[in-house]
Design goal:
ten-stranded antiparallel sheet; 5 helices; two-stranded antiparallel sheet; 22% strand; alpha+beta; 337 residues
């Protein structure tokens, strides 16, 4: 039994050695053929078209293959980098165009910024004059701001700016600071105007007729009467639109104290206002208010007509302070229509 087992092992070992030898032989044979192929000699001849010396040199397949690979690599690299150079050139041209456009926009921005600064100078001058006329001290309204930002003088100074900061940006920041400081005095002006607007509504400060065709046909003072031809004192002003029917408005708030018909004034309305002021509206075609009625400024009280002694449709308008008759134009010029 032992002899059979040992014999089998010897056979298996002999077979394995035989297989390994065959495999090694095949491998060696393959590499030998492979090396032989690349070791084949090649002769390259350069023959000129004209008479001359023929140049020839010998090489092998391996060297020739390496030379072809190197030349192909160089050509590929040239094509690749040339393509990248073209793409880069196009991108650079695009960036240059964008840069030119940006510079043009920046120049426009600088021009607008300069215009803004010039407007700010005029604003400063006008605001200072207005505050002075109204008795408002500008310095007290901006005292809570940071030093150097309370006046536009710092905006137009030539002091050196911080490194890396654009002059335009610094100017805009200072202008913003000044405008913020100007809000308070402007609000005070608004409140003052609101108070004065209440005063204006108590005095006859608007035109009683509102029309593009409105004109003063006869002024206040000594005039020649259009009917009698005699000199007389015209106690008001005559307004005309060359037609009847245009509305007539109260020139200030007050109370209607008289609505009647007079042979000279025709249909007329008298309104009592504050501060001892009275206004009369004469030659109406019709009155839209009654005695004792309270009216506000711009309240319609009648329409232009031709009643009483007239030469055509118009409104005769008078202003009385106590027992004195005054020129209405002095009050109508306070606020235009």
């Amino acid at each position: 039994m032992f002899n059979k087992s040992g014999s089998r092992r010897k056979n298996e070992k002999s077979f394995a050695n035989s297989s390994e030898n065959k495999f090694s032989y095949k491998i060696k044979n393959f590499f030998s053929k492979f090396v032989h192929i690349f070791d084949n000699k090649l002769t390259i001849m350069i023959v000129p078209h004209e008479k001359g010396k023929v140049v020839n040199f010998q090489t092998n397949v391996l060297a020739m293959g390496l030379a072809v690979i190197i030349i192909a690599g160089i050509l590929f690299s040239f094509i690749f980098f040339n393509r990248n150079a073209v793409v880069s050139s196009i991108e650079i041209d695009r960036l240059f165009a964008e840069n030119r456009q940006t510079m043009a926009s920046l120049d426009e921005l600088r021009d607008e910024n300069n215009n803004l600064l010039q407007t700010a100078k005029r604003f400063q001058s006008s605001l200072s004059q207005s505050l002075s006329l109204l008795g408002i001290e500008q310095a007290s309204t901006v005292s809570n701001n940071k030093p150097g930002n309370s006046d536009l003088n710092s905006l137009f100074s030539t002091e050196e700016l911080a490194a890396g900061s654009l002059k335009e940006a610094a100017d805009i920041r200072q202008l913003t600071s000044y405008l913020e400081s100007a809000v308070q005095p402007i609000e005070q002006i608004g409140k003052m105007l609101e108070t004065q607007n209440s005063l204006f509504s108590d005095i006859p400060s608007i035109w009683p007729v509102r029309s593009p065709q409105l004109h003063v046909s006869m002024a206040f003072g000594p005039m020649i009467h259009p009917i009698t031809g005699q000199w007389y004192v015209h106690k008001g002003i005559d307004m005309s639109t060359w037609r009847s029917g245009d509305p007539i408005y109260a020139t200030a708030k007050g109370q209607v104290v008289n609505v009647n018909y007079d042979s000279g004034y025709g249909i007329n309305v008298i309104i009592k206002h504050k501060h001892g002021i009275y206004t009369r509206y004469a030659h109406m075609n019709a009155a839209d208010v009654e005695n004792g009625e309270f009216v506000s400024q711009y309240h319609q009280i009648g329409i232009i007509g031709n009643t009483g002694v007239t030469t055509g449709p118009h409104l005769h308008y008078e202003v009385h302070i106590g027992s004195d008759v005054v020129d209405p134009i002095k009050y109508l010029n306070i606020r235009y229509r």
